[in-house]
Amino acid sequence: AKKTTRGSTQFYQDSMSVQAREELMLENDIHKAIKNDEFVMYYQPQLNVETNEIIGAEALIRWMHPEKGLIMPDAFIPLAEESGIIIKLEEWIFDRICSDAKKLSEDMGGFNLHHIAINVSTIHFLEPHFVEKLMLLVKKHKVRPEWFELEITESGIMRNVEDAIQKIKELKDFGFTFSIDDFGTGYSSLSHLKELPVDVIKIDQSFVRNMNENDEMIIEAVVAIGQKFDLEVLAEGVESDKILEYLKDINCNTYQGYFAHTPIALDEFEALLKPKK
Ligand code: C2E
Ligand code: CA
Ligand code: CA
Ligand code: CA
């Protein structure tokens, strides 16, 4: 009987796809990592193209694994989305970003950035209680919705346009702002852009890093669209002064990129904001 049991267990495990097994492992690991405080939020400054002043930051997660060392989000976020554990993880992320923002505001004698940008997974965004959850969170931390910009993706919005528009409107009424992340890479939401009450378009870094002539046409088209719809246009992945100069020439509004700053820990970000003596 023992052998049969082992045999069937073996069969069950073998029949699980490699991916299903990876997801299961990752789910357990993420639960453990939250409990053991292994995740950290980094902040990548966002700057005004014209003045080079820091106007905000995008929060980006890092996993400081006790054995594997630093794990970058691309190695676990997509899997976390497939398994659904992303919702638990983002609850932790949002909580941490709120407390970081609170700390920043207290240390700086007020919140004097435009915003901190938060990546929102579509799976989480389309969850029925998403709006309510965010409201409870800002109340809990005594932070203001105006401090935060929620980054959603085109392809995410396209999954359920009606629901997305409804939620964006509700959250904007409370004071949150919105950006469309990775613009240009998903399904084109050009036809929906006029209905979407977002504030910022983020040009995907694939068009900006190692920019060529085709990329230039796309970047200029997006900047024109932004002007037409009265949206801020942010270029991601600016790695050289040449590209920054180009962005200045075409009147792109804001940027992020290694040329200015890589993502950094909260205290380093704070140090950048403090007036130099
Ligand atoms: P993303 O939202 O497009 O974030 C921008 C990515 O570009 C970040 O990678 C950032 O470090 C990188 N980057 C910024 N400037 C440059 C540059 O000049 N050159 C190059 N080569 N790269 C640059 P990161 O931190 O590895 O994050 C990767 C992706 O993981 C993010 O892409 C986002 O989709 C996801 N992610 C990161 N943090 C979170 C999070 O807290 N929640 C969710 N849902 N997703 C996250
Ligand atoms: Ca983003
Ligand atoms: Ca992006
Ligand atoms: Ca991305």
Automatic annotation (TrEMBL):
It comes from the Bacteria. Residues 23-277 form the EAL domain. This is PAS domain S-box protein. It comes from Sulfurovum riftiae. The chain holds residues 496 to 772 of 772 of the full protein.
